[in-house]
Specification:
The protein is about 60% helix and about 10% strand. By secondary structure, it is α+β, with helices and mostly antiparallel strands. Strand 4 and strand 5 form a beta hairpin. Helix 7 runs antiparallel to helix 8 and helix 7 crosses helix 10. It starts with a helix and ends with a helix.
């Protein structure tokens, strides 16, 4: 069944074509194929009933927001009842016995993620037995060319038990992201370079799953945090995490 969005896009595409016809120079033979009466009818409808289009868009947006809310509620319920299904293959650090699980969606090339990394390091050092941090990849590939290669390199290090050391090195050297850095970090961590290079060429299902989850939750940017604790459950800002950790002690 066609969704409102499909209808809306088809309608506005048609309208856009009509506006191009009106405003852009076309060859005479192309212009002659446009029905002037139909064009005027469409333009008249838009002029007389703009509120109907606006109301339809608003209704669709509300429907989408409700769907996102339901998806996030189901995710939080899974996080409460069976956190391991949510954690999956993702790297974790901190106390495995903690009742607080903090999930971070992050991008190794995102400068805001690099700043968040510093804060999280401090929090984990301050509350070592209070929280379990879970790292989920959400490389913003449209604006960060090295985000996915960096995520793949960190995943390759994870296969040799060195994810968090590699993770820290990537954020520390964020301005030098690239193949040379990825190999240098691997050498410094004494990784098996043959295995590491082999893993760099793989399409990793773990990263793909992270991206799909982020899109399902309508994550719009990074860093993005979701926390489950005895006192709070849901999306949380970095600035509020310590107060939650303090309240849970």
């Amino acid at each position: 069944m066609s969704t409102f969005f499909d209808w809306f896009m088809r309608t506005w595409t048609a309208i856009g074509v009509l506006f191009l016809v009106v405003t852009c120079p076309f060859p005479a033979q192309a212009a002659s194929r446009i029905d002037p009466q139909l064009e005027q009818q469409v333009l008249q409808i838009i002029r007389e009933h703009p509120e109907e289009i606006i109301e339809s868009v608003q209704a669709y947006q509300q429907q989408q927001q409700q769907k996102i809310k339901q998806v996030r509620q189901a995710f939080l319920q899974d996080l409460k009842t069976n956190p391991q299904t949510v954690i999956g293959e993702s790297p974790t650090t901190g106390s495995t016995q903690s009742k607080i699980v903090l999930i971070e969606f992050s991008d190794f090339q995102c400068p805001y993620c690099a700043e968040a990394h510093k804060t999280l390091k401090e929090l984990l050092a301050k509350y070592p037995d209070t929280v379990r941090l879970v790292y989920k990849n959400f490389p913003l590939t449209s604006i960060h060319a090295e985000a996915l290669p960096a995520a793949t390199a960190a995943w390759a290090a994870h296969q040799q038990g060195k994810f968090w050391e590699y993770h820290d090195a990537l954020f520390t050297n964020q301005k030098q992201l690239g193949e040379a850095l990825y190999l240098d970090i691997a050498k410094n961590l004494n990784l098996d370079l043959g295995k590491f290079k082999g893993n760099l060429t793989l399409t990793t299902s773990a990263i793909t799953k992270d991206i799909q989850l982020a899109e399902k939750l309508a994550v719009s940017g990074t860093p993005f945090f979701v926390i489950n604790s005895p006192t709070f459950s849901g999306v949380v800002q970095l600035a509020d995490i310590e107060s939650i950790l303090t309240g849970a002690k």
